[in-house]
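Dear colleague,

As promised, here are the two records you asked about, laid out in our usual form so they can be pasted straight into your sheet.

NAME FIELD: protein one
SEQUENCE, THEN STRUCTURE:
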Amino acid sequence: MFILERYHNYIFIGGSGSGKTELSVNTAIQLAASEANKQICFFDMDQTKGMFRSRDLRLHLLSEGVLFLDTVDYMDAPVVPAGISSSLSDTKSTCVFDVGGNVVGAKMIGQYAAGLAEHSTCAFYVLNPFRPFSGTWDDIYDSMKSILNASKIPMERVRILSNPCLGERTSPFLILQAHNWLSELLKKNGLQVAALATESSALQLIQSKVSCPVLSIRLFVKQLYQG
């Protein structure tokens, strides 16, 4: 399973291009398959970029039994999806949030901080070492601090997901190299990687070479934008 524990809310946050959409979509689909007695609500909170958005996977999510809530009717206006407050208070639903990759996007989820109690919310911060502003500790820390402050999520509450990805150039060797570098960098600064995400085809090879849990994911975004 992608998620090892059960929560009412799952938040995916991090820098632009880190892989939040892939991970949030995978989580919603796997939760829908495993929690037949709950409605899985997916919220597209990303109003900060023009491509690679979870709203483009709306029909696929619906076909997998996920209730998709977004702001399609308002195009790219910075409008919050409807139904968040009611879903947060509904014990029969599970919420997955795909949050925008900068301070503006993080503020979208920050306004709901009061309804995202620690015991019921799992907040993932996604790091892709191959993305801009992720090559040094200062870059990573400054980005995390600004995004988490805007989202009103304390750094000690987030679980860091390592998601090394270079698109078509990604290989098991590059994944392991970047993941090991990131793990050591975080360890030196008092943080740790909660899990490593990788495409399912590379799972067996990578799983035997790292000490943290490995999350098997499908790359929906790559399929969506091919050709």
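NAME FIELD: protein two
SEQUENCE, THEN STRUCTURE:
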Amino acid sequence: MTFLVPLPVVMPLLGAALTLMMAGKPRAQRTVSLTVLTATLLVSCALLYFSTTDGSLVVAVGGWEAPLGIVLIADQLAALMLVVSSAVTLCVLVYSIGQGMADGHEETPLSVYHPTYLVLTAGVTNAFLAGDLFNLYVGFEILLVASYVLLTIGGTENRIRAGSTYVVVSLLSSVIFLTAIGLIYAATGTLNLAQLVERLDALPDGLRLILQGMLLLAFGIKAAVFPLSSWLPDSYPTAPAPVTAVFAGLLTKVGVYAIIRTETLLFPGGRAAVVLLITGLLTMVIGILGAVAQSDIKRLLSFTLISHIGYLLFGVGLTTQLGLASAIFYVVHHITIQTTLFLAAGLIEHRGGSTALDKLGGLAKLSPVLAVLFLVPALNLAGIPPFSGFIGKLGLVQAGVADGGVLAWMLVAGGILTSLLTLYAVARVWNLAFWRTPPKSMKPGRLPALMVAPTLALVVFGAALTFVAGPLFEVGDQAAESLQERTAYVQSVFGGETP
């Protein structure tokens, strides 16, 4: 089944080329995009099944075997990320089509939107499947170039300004990443991840720490960890709702994925664990304090996005199997819930004309469906039992308690505080936007079905994570065990031979 491995990258790229040739034919573009992303989701599910039952699937692109050629690897972690990201991108695409129809295509010019969106999808999937550092860099650059276009769609002053900041920050992280790649190649003679396992271990500790630090800095900017996150709240909220949603759900998680992959595979042993734990604590607490201070729903959600990245660093920094498994579970939860909340914010903006809390009110009465679409993922984000947010946080707390260190206990306390403040932040939104008396300008009305349906699908999917938490956590545990052993990854690439 190795022929399936390149398809999540190839299909969106071919779809992007096809939709680009269909400029001026929005119905054909929509059909192609929906077909491609549906097929990508089905292939991703198949990859998750086969990687769980048969082990990692490896493809040498063009027949050039590792370490000379480009290798794509679908292990359990990569396949799980593919499934979640494919489901999210498909739902957001349907939402964007509904918004385009409701707004007369003014917010999302379809001739540009569809090919760019598919290119973004290809960049994300390529990053997840990359078996070498340079191909990981290529995946980042593909998705970043596409994100520049999506972020500035419409050409408004605010979007151009936000896009400029985003471009500068992204280029900075890319330069750091590319410099690290050059230094690693100079020190080891390879960029293949499986071959780097042995060669990096042979380097002096000081040099390894420098290379590790550079990669963490580059990925930390992309993942928006504190203090490298100030660009995000000013960039994401200016974009159209579907663009903001897919950015919030996926772009920062690609950075987190890169941290998980490199820290477990290339730099095991916890040399940077203290840095990750401290950064995770600061990201959680400072991020949620920023959310509490906001009066706009999109900016508030942007700060909660930053804050909950800290939970992921918490799990990775513990360097234990339970901590890593909990972090993997929480990645799946966070991608789903943050995307859902930003889609709900788009519905609030469509219904109320704004996401500023002082201009909203009475939405629970005027639009009960919208109230449910916001409330369920909001409670999930806050970690209210029995939702998946509670299960993921409980796993991280258990991992921290099992560690028993002072810093781990501080993270446990910080995680609980962040969860309580998250509940306060979303309760404040609920009180101001949904409960209080609505402004006279707001009248009862119906929401576009094509915007409600994908949002509802993600709400159901997020709630369903509770019912499949056992199997999902088991997959995360198996992935964590494989990541920590490292030998299975190396053997899957080189077939048991010495790299």
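A couple of things worth noting about protein two: The longest strand covers residues 57-60. The two ends are 24 Å apart (CA to CA).

Best,
R.
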